[in-house]
Amino acid sequence: MKHNYCRNIKYERIAITEEKLYISKLKSEFGDKGSFTKSDLIEFYTDLTSDISQSLIDWRVLSLSKKGILERIGHGIYTFGKEKKFKPYLQDAHKKLFKDLDEKLPYAEKCIWRTSILNQFMIHQPGHFMTIIEIDREAKESAFYFLKDRGLEVFLEMDIDFIWRYSSIDKETVIVKALITEAPLQSVEEVQTVTLEKVLVDLFCDTDLFTTYQGTERSTIFKEAFIKYTININKLLRYAGRRGKRGDIREYLERLDLIPFKKK
Length: 264
Prior knowledge:
Oligomer: single chain
Number of strands: 9
């Protein structure tokens, strides 16, 4: 799915925040209606800001649609949709692995995910996957040796060259990383795992570890993720800021036409 027309419109360089979308007021205005038109939305935003441009209204409607707040049910006709929340699939083996590790190191914050969750966003499917375990920095080595003693092929994130040189294609690679404080996580079936916002930021930041998912493949992943699921931009940028990449990833999202240009 592509929004080619976006590239031909000169948008104001202004950020659309959650507040600028006026979601609460929008629901209050149209919540009791089964459907409403694009003209209704134009009138709604014009009443709030008299000098608003058509291009900015288009961006707002597009953002609301991508978030799953609005759903188009006909040409120029909308209704309220449901939030499209991303929940990564966890195999039973990974659930057990997490619970065993949690029992061993109960006081350490941790999460687990597998790179296969990216397949739905990709054109070229990788033939090898990694299981990523992130844990408080102080507990990282303890987690590494615990997993090593279970016979798993485990590497610490710092050993990037070692990983690519010695990891086996016959066994799944397990990577132990330091968990960034205040990383956006979620619980799925009592297992702490990642949010899509976190995964996207990590792909952008950890280019050496996630080499398979760079270049045009990364662009595809980002675009498909924004189309298929509700992405909380504030949450994504906040975490990117924790990783020192807020400005860089914002510019990247702008180049992909996933968010409007920020006011200079």
